[in-house]
Amino acid sequence: MVTAFEGLPGGVAVSHLCVYDWPAADGVSGGTPHMHLTCSEAYVVTGGRGSVQTLTTSGYEVTPLVPGTVARFTPGTIHRLVNEDDLRITVLMQNSGLPEAGDAVLTLPPEHLTDPETYAAATVIPADAPEAERERIARSRRDLALEGYRALREAPEGLADFHRAAAALVRPRLAEWRERWLRGAAAAAAATGEQLDRLERGDLSHLADAVVRSERPSELGRFGMCGRLDVYRGG
């Protein structure tokens, strides 16, 4: 029996993002282009200025980002954050933060997408490495992903091949992702359904179990795909 859900509303997760200001080969500063396969994301812009470049089967778009903007996109959207002036964002992530916990494939050139081991060799940042080394790896993988991203922009017919390669890379983790969904968004929806049933029966007992929770970030300044992240437990 489910009567309460202890996570953030709807089973989302949140992180605070300071977008990288590293210039790339095209002269644009920003993050690493990538795609999620099962999760939507929303950007709530809290400071600075920039944009998000997106590439889908419908084409290429640029969405300006200024304080107050809420931009959101669905699975299959390749996205690249551009930092024009100290861009800062609060990121809302579906499925208890799964986008930062595995549901992301960088737009690397095809030779790096052949299998999970090859992909990991080009993307994993060792948590115990010195900060300067972690920054070097984060910047190197960003630049490598931009190579594949530029190729997809120039020849968007390659998107289908990228989608297939991305799906093959994540397939071994789908059972783990399903468990996260069951504990998160699915459990949150089930709790609401049970509360509606209780109210319909005149049972108000769950209202007496109300609680208040708060937390501070569990990690500050993690090197993420798009910038430095302040993350919360489970995010």
Defining traits:
single chain, 235 residues, alpha+beta, seven-stranded antiparallel β-sheet, 9 strands, 32% helix, 27% strand, globular
Structure characterization notes:
The protein has about 240 residues and is of the alpha+beta class. It is about 30% helix and about 25% strand. The chain is built from six helices and nine strands. Strands 1, 3, 4, 5, 6, 8 and 9 form a seven-stranded antiparallel β-sheet that branches. The longest helix is centred in the middle third of the chain and has 24 residues, at about 130-155. The two termini are about 25 Å apart.
Strand content: 25-35%
Calculate the mean pLDDT score and round it. 95
The helix count comes to 6
Major sheet details: 7 strands, antiparallel
Instruction: Output the helix-strand order.
Output: EEEEEEHEHHHHHEE
Low-confidence stretches: none
Helix content: 25-40%
| Dominant shape | globular
Structural class: alpha+beta
Number of strands: 9
Give the radius of gyration. 19 Å
Give the terminus-to-terminus CA distance. 26 Å
Short description:
By secondary structure, this protein is α+β, with helices and mostly antiparallel strands.
SSE map:
Blueprint: E1 13-19, E2 34-35, E3 41-56, E4 59-65, E5 70-73, E6 78-93, H1 94-97, E7 105-106, H2 116-123, H3 131-154, H4 159-170, H5 174-183, H6 185-201, E8 219-223, E9 227-231
Antiparallel strand pairs: 1-6, 1-9, 2-7, 3-4, 3-5, 3-6, 8-9
Helix pairs in contact: 5-6
